[in-house]
Design goal:
Aspartate Aminotransferase, domain 1, binds pyridoxal-5'-phosphate, alpha/beta, single chain, 4-stranded antiparallel sheet
């Protein structure tokens, strides 16, 4: 019998992937499940990107590329950082990989060892702590309450830093809460970081373009240039351009770090798919106007789902400032009894109840490190959200 490595026991598969798979299985059994678990916009990949894919195939761009991505793509990423973020990253300060996920993984694998700590504000994307553990490090959590807008306060960051701290990693807008750090909030965070020169920062900006209510996007290295030399700025073609399946992410950072990250990638996946690189090149350098149209549609969906959830007894949604998800408190359902006589004891119970009773799939908040909440994804048609809202309300009303 195979004895599996200890690292396989340090974490499980991604909870949203598990929830999506569970919903898919029930659907395959003929159940009419409304699935609100996905972390991807339902919009199609733009036509000009699809045409660029065809053209790349016609040109037989189907061979290995440089591990860090083609020079043409890295130049396009460099231009994107300048255009959107006012950041100067030369092509040799850029690494492209199979999604932001791989680039984050490369960064942690290249830098984190046993005894190293990585600060992760919670709630957070489930992959951060698991990647830290994979690399052998210890995630150190800051619990950011709903009252604080799910954001870490400077004094909380200060208190979490130790001599072992290697990184602070966070995304803004955040998955799962949509909390977004303003320029002023980032400035306050950077004041703390300037006092601790051994701490580096991963700024995960994958939701940069999905930002609501005319908010202005800001990223740490831009807000505090004195942190530029110890910041890794991570982004992706996935969310802004509806290209999740292409698996193309990128990072800009100090040359040496990028070189070490490239080393990790060279012995794992090598360069990202040549065709995905051609697609991302077009996405980043082609027309950008559709992004605002899609953002407006996403904002409309956010408003619809927040209104619907607010009408459900026991639920309290927190309106996201960006991103694709509502983090909704289910505290008011705890201790209540389902029509089948089961008591709802935590957000996992409530999630299962919703799936069985309302046939609506969401992800339990415990997966993101803060309970009792559910994460409700809203990048789906408004009619789907309305149907989900009707079902969730009925299920909440049936609790006694
Ligand atoms: N970072 C955050 C905060 C995410 O939520 C996700 C995906 O859900 C990613 C990174 C991964 O993006 P990619 O598709 O580029 O790997």
């Amino acid at each position: 019998m195979m004895r599996y490595a200890a690292r396989t026991r340090r974490f499980d598969r991604s909870p949203s992937q598990i929830a999506s798979a569970r919903a898919r299985d029930l659907r395959a059994q003929g159940r009419d499940i409304v699935t609100l678990t996905a972390g991807e916009p339902d919009f199609p990949t733009p036509d000009h990107v699809k045409r660029a894919v065809m053209a790349a195939l016609e040109r037989n761009e189907t061979k290995y590329t440089a591990v860090e991505g083609t020079l043409a793509l890295r130049e396009a990423v460099s231009a994107k950082f300048k255009r959107d973020n006012g950041l100067d990253y030369a092509p040799d300060q850029i690494l492209c990989g199979a999604g932001a996920k791989q680039v984050l993984f490369d960064a942690l694998m290249a830098t984190v060892e046993a005894g190293d700590e990585v600060i992760v504000p919670l709630p957070s994307w489930a992959s951060y702590p698991d990647m830290v553990k994979f690399a052998g490090g210890t995630p150190v959590f800051i619990h950011c309450s709903q009252n604080a807008g799910f954001k870490m306060r400077p004094e909380e960051l200060e208190a979490a830093i130790t001599p072992q701290t290697k990184w602070v990693m966070f995304s803004s807008p955040n998955n799962p809460t949509g909390a977004t750090y303003s320029r002023e909030e980032l400035k306050a965070i950077s004041e703390v970081l300037l006092r601790h020169p051994h701490v580096w920062v991963i700024s995960d900006d994958v939701y940069e373009h999905i930002l609501f209510d005319d908010r202005e996007f800001a990223t740490l290295a831009q807000v505090e240039p004195r942190l530029y030399d110890r910041t890794l700025t991570v982004n992706s073609s996935s969310k802004a351009y509806s290209m999740t399946g292409f698996r193309l992410g990128f990072a800009g950072g100090p040359r040496e770090l990028i070189r070490e990250m490239g080393k990790m990638q060279s012995q794992s996946t090598s360069g990202p798919s040549s065709i995905s690189q051609a697609a991302a090149l077009e996405a980043l350098s082609g027309p950008q106007d559709f992004i605002a149209e899609r953002r407006a549609k996403m904002q409309e969906r956010r408003d619809v789902i927040c209104d619907l959830l607010a009408q459900c007894p026991g639920l309290m949604p927190s309106k996201p400032e960006g991103g694709l998800y509502v983090y909704c408190s289910v505290a008011g359902t705890l201790g209540k009894r389902t029509p089948q006589g089961k008591v709802i004891e935590n957000d996992q119970d409530f999630t299962i109840y919703l799936l069985e009773q309302a046939e609506v799939a969401v992800v339990q908040g415990s997966a993101y490190g803060m309970s009792p909440y559910i994460r409700v994804s809203f990048p789906v048609a408004i009619e789907t959200l309305q149907e989900a809202g009707r079902r969730i309300k009925k299920a909440c009303e049936a609790l006694t």
